[in-house]
Amino acid sequence: MLNFCTYFDSNYLAKGLTLYRSLVRYAMPFRLWVLCFDNLTYEILQKMSLPQIHPILLSDFEYKDEELLKAKSNRSKVEYYFTCTPSLPLYIFKKYPEVDVISYVDADLFFFSNPSTIYKELNDNSVLIVGHRFPSYLKHLEKYGIYNVGFLSFRRDDVGLKCLNWWREKCIEWCYDRLEDGRFSDQKYLDDWQGHFKRIIVLKQKGAGLSPWNLANYQLSENKGQIIVDTDQLVFFHFHDLKEVQQWLYDPCLTQYKVRLDSFLKKHIYGPYIRELKDVTNWLSNINDSAYMKISSIRGRVQGNIIYRIAKKTKDQLTMVKKILLGQSLVVVGGKVL
User: Is residue 27 part of a domain?
Assistant: First the structure.
């Protein structure tokens, strides 16, 4: 059985459940522990009673963890979320002694095939990490981290636990949403792991960790219903920064990575995900009206005063009109993604 963990609040609930649905399709049997950052998320997941999902109440997670609570008092909400990343696998290892390997997954991942090939690469190693794999013209983004926190696997052994505890100590000491002294949130610390620990493996397969920032590296194709990345099967895609502008309009934010939203991406990558996401959102609306909400990233931030926000909204609207005209956005009409 595969074991996964993630976290989100009610703003990210639909994306988290879309991740869950993809795991049901391709990763059975599995367990997914969800750290719920607000009570609404916990209540809805409890009400849904999905057999593979194990919701964790935030107060239970924080219970008697004085170091974590102290860190919570001096950073923003999103920074505290990042601070909790290494503590979540440790919490599961402590509470569930039968778990041998746990994989942390960001809630905006979506699986397109069985993840078993990832674990074949992990083999008997202790920790698995995934590189950003930036193309040459985006190498400057490595200042935010060579590796991405979106998918990480840890084995319950001396190295896996030592790495997790080291990462937790670092995140409690400093975990802010800014670049400072070679650090950035929970992510930049991953750059040091291979220098500090043995049995750390960097995932090689191209089909795991496909994302907006590395799409330019690869040739995508379709073969008998499977998406192929160069010669590897697509395992999961990281839908980082996908924004719902309106119920009928989505912005994949690809232009910042100089990637064109072509017909293949619309049909085979973004289209299936958005259809699933909208279906989950409708599903939630039938369970609890308060869960029917605009999807927004927990890695976002609130900006400025009222004048600034009005100006920014106007600018964003003009930008979206331009993206629509240039074919860089996704329009949903009658259940179809155009």
Answer: yes
Low-confidence ranges of the chain (pLDDT < 50): 290-304, 306-314, 317-318, 320-326
CATH code (residue 26): 3.90.550.10
Tell me phi and psi for residue 227, to 5 degrees.
-85, 130
Is 295 part of any domain?
A: no
- The rounded distance, in Å, linking the Cα atoms of 147 and 285 is 36
pLDDT at 291: 41
Amino acid code (one letter) for 315 = K
- Residue 187 near residue 144 (C-beta atoms within 8 A): yes
pLDDT at residue 55 in the model: 98
Domain boundaries, position 121: 2-237
Query: Per the domain annotation, does 264 fall within a domain?
Result: no
Q: Spell out the residues 6+ positions from residue 67 whose beta carbon is closer than 8 angstroms to its own.
A: 172
Task: List, for residues 26-45, the tens digit of each pLDDT value.
Answer: 999 999 999 999 999 999 99
90: its two tokens: 């440790």
- Is residue 272 a part of any domain in this protein? no
**How many domains does the chain contain in total?**
1
Give the predicted TM-score (pTM) of the model. Answer: 0.89
Q: Residue 152's closest CA among 236, 277, 63, 57? A: 236
